[in-house]
Amino acid sequence: MATVTFRDETATGKPLSEWEVTGLPERMTVRELIRLRVREEVARHNARPTNRFNGLVRPDDAETDLNGYRLPEPRPIDWQRQAEIAERAFLTNGFFILTADRQVEALDEPVDLTTDSNLVFIKLFALAGG
């Protein structure tokens, strides 16, 4: 069984957050890792719903806020819907993932978690003014 560290960083390399998930198979696809990450962060939110969500991608009807997303009211979030949004964001370069100092490029790309156990997620934001 493997342990993976999910880490969020800015495009300049500034760390934002980090957490581990243990008990994983030795190999997973990028798609499976994204879905796992989203399921974990949504489970944390849903354990104590608030009007703020700190996750990889913006939930439906939320507004982007400093260091997260603001929901109109506290509510649980559907992790499967969030996973779909995250997969689309990955495919459209809304964020990218580094593992073992290389960028993964395809959802079905396998990742060996025994050697590539640190996943860095870098969110890209549109610049103001276009």
Could you list the spans in which at least 5 consecutive residues all have pLDDT below 50? none
Classified in CATH, the superfamily is: Phosphatidylinositol 3-kinase Catalytic Subunit, Chain A, domain 1
Chain oligomer state: single chain
**What would the CATH topology be?**
Ubiquitin-like (UB roll)
Rg from C-alpha positions? 14 Å
How many separate helices? 2
Task: Indicate the proportion of strand residues.
Answer: 35-45%
Terminal CA distance reads 45 Å
Q: Helix and strand succession?
A: EEEHEEEHEEEE
Structural class: alpha+beta
Give the biggest sheet.
5 strands, mixed
Categorize the overall geometry: globular
Adjacency order of strands in the biggest sheet? 2-1-10-7-8
CATH architecture name: Roll
Instruction: Return the CATH class.
Output: Alpha Beta
Q: Can you give the helix content as a percent range?
A: 10-25%
Mean pLDDT: 92
- The count of β-strands is 10
**What's the number of domains?**
1
Please name the defining characteristics of this protein:
three-stranded antiparallel beta sheet; single chain; Ubiquitin-like (UB roll); about 130 residues; five-stranded mixed beta sheet; 10 strands; alpha+beta
